[in-house]
Amino acid sequence: MDIKTIEYNEINEVMHVYEHSSGLKAFVIPKKGYSKKYATFATHYGSINNKFVVPGESEAIRVPDGIAHFLEHKLFEQKDGSVMDKFSALGSSPNAYTSFNQTVYLFSCTDKFDENFQLLLNFVQNPYITDESVEKEKGIIGQEIQMYQDDPEWKVFFNLLRAFYKENPVRIDIAGTIESISQINREVLYKCYNTFYHPSNMVILVVGDVDHRKVFEQVEKNIEIKQEKPEIKRIFPEESKEINENYVEEKLAVAMPIFQAGFRDNRLNVQGIESLRQEVAVKILLNMIMGRSSKLYNDLYNEGLINSTFDYDYTIEESYAHSMFGGESPDPEKVRDKIVKAIEDLKTNGLDRNNYERIRKAMKGRFLKQLNSVESISHTFMSVYFKGVTIFDYFDVYDKITFEYINDTFAGHFNLDNLALSVIRPA
Amino acid sequence: MLDRYNNAQLYKIDSFSGITIYNLKTEKFKTNTINIFFHDNLTRENASRNALLPAVLRRGCSRFPTFRDISLYLEELYGATFDCGVTKKGEMQIIQFYIDYVSDRYTGENSRLFEKAFDLLFEIITSPVLENGVFKNDYVEQEKDNLRKLIESRVNDKMQYSVEKCLEEMCKDEPFGIYDYGSVEELKKIDAKGLYDYYVTFLQTLPISVYITGNVEESMIDNVIKKLSNIKRGNIKETNTGEVVKEVAEVRNITETMPVNQSKLSLGFRTNISSSDEDYYALVVYNGILGGGIHSKLFQNVREKESMAYYAFSRLEKFKGLMVISSGILKENKDKAIRIIEEQLESMRRGNISEYEFDSTLKTIETGMKSLMDSQLQIVDFYLSQSIVNTNDDFNSFIEKIKKVTKDDVIRVANKIKLDTIYFLTGTEA
Asked: Which positions in chain B touch A109 (Cβ < 8 Å)?
């Protein structure tokens, strides 16, 4: 068995990698002394993959919105009942989540890792979907969708995505709508499964105090190659370079307006570590412009225009990228205008190198803290894995990023034509 | 045997003038943390003041007089995180000041971060920014405004709101009915002078507990003791967690309307069992079987069998001996949901509990307890809670007691639990 071991001495971590003959890669990040063992089995298939060519067919199909998430729910159903019950009997908690780009199955346990891991490997590879169970699930997911409809933070986020993008499926709710899930049936679920759940499109990660050799042996024994590695054709619509709308608003049961604003980023021609570098650079800039140590944040706070809910982030994926910042505010337009003013001032006066150095150091320290938690490690690992990098590459990016690159990114990202604002006002 | 990684054992280092200092030494984490807690009884007049006080103190201290100065300094300390706030534990209000920072091993230099981090926290608590001998008026007024908005914004998270509101309504004539952050009415009465006078008493009289976790040298902790012993202390206030046993004369029904899509049903119960009772461990098991996970009766019946909800759970408030059941449902399913929940309660009373339900629950609780040991924050919270109710359990003794619980114990507990309040949050009529 060919195992690769990478040591990260500066941060005192190790990662073991093993590649299965199917093309699936498995990773183990040992965490000595931790009680929890956290295993993840994920596929590179998320809510945005709603149009594709099923292997062996010639025409592309458009599947109902929310189907990747629906399939995630249904995989837990097995021939002999729900696999959740089996995890429960072992005292562990299985879970799963579907994001725009991936579907992730996981469990967390403190005991009997091998048995739990066996369950995970088996159920994800063996769908058992019946017409009856599909119908039953519609009631449960219907309530999940309704719950999100009442969540102002979820709504303000998706409304901003819809302002950024006219066509990109990232604008569609991950769980779909009650109407779209009503069209889901057994047959189309299997089509999605057969397209995207081939081991070569998947990854396994275990974080915790485990013997990596035993983990890899279990992977080796239990990953089945049922068919040839399929060619997956994912089809994305053409998206205009311009944002869809620069302002969107909705009313909900909230006490004070909630907003998210941000810049859509058309610089998508980056891959792997370059994509991480772009992400880190924009995050450093956001921290410099509107972080808690910035003049802008403190002015806005002192004027009562923002409160401690204010936060910011940057996302970059294959077909979309954008920054977002927001929170609660009595006057979101005014906050946006002041942020625009601060950015324009910086364009005139230039960025401060000391400021940049201090923030880079702080952000690296804060990133390091994530390694305290097996969940955080797993979650961050999965969020970047299908870009061809791992969580540990961030440290290299933090070390090697330059002030010149930050300046280039500043010029490239904060384009006022790409700025949009989404507001939820009290109903 | 001492294991330098996996030793979630807490040591009491010292105790004087109502200040107790604990240390948990471990190399498992990348960070060290310092927590300073002030303990108070939950009362109407103090709740808002206790909530406002940390919000004002975090704005600045004499060495770093603005929030921006503090933020700049935290960045210098390799991205140390500082925060503060309040929570309620039963009928006690806990005021927390917290800092974490990357331990020296990972900063690549001898940066003496512990001392710097502790000093910052200590100065924020003990050397506030003053103006004419009292708190700076701007800070007080701005934070009053922020706190008012925070109280008003409770409704944003409907799931949490419906659970908290149910318990508050149920205990509206008891201290537990007070919201963690107090009320807008009480907040209005506070000014800079009044808050400063209150702060002086706060610092002198409230019991304080200090928790240090991570890889911190003992000599450093000696310094902490020295500094803390410089705080001027008076008579230390007596605190208590409140009454647990209460008769329910009649079940109350409360309906609140808001423009929402999904209705939230919450049922509040008196368990009549406190966390220092012998029956407490059986209560934890009872709650686990009823609604503590995917094996539970509520999840299996309300969600999996009837497919009428995405979530359905029960949860304990251990200090006050309360239990709440909550689920998000369609408005028209209210009566049906209550009926199904009643059936589960009845089957608990009858001991209609399968081996699978019982064993899964015990194992799930064990996993949950062991998992707490992987987070510095949760370890500290566990021990803080233990100290509040004087139960002196550690993770292992807790698990051992849970394992001794029998089905008969659970049935006995089931018969003590009484429904008190049904709270329903539902959509406004069109």
From this structure: 367
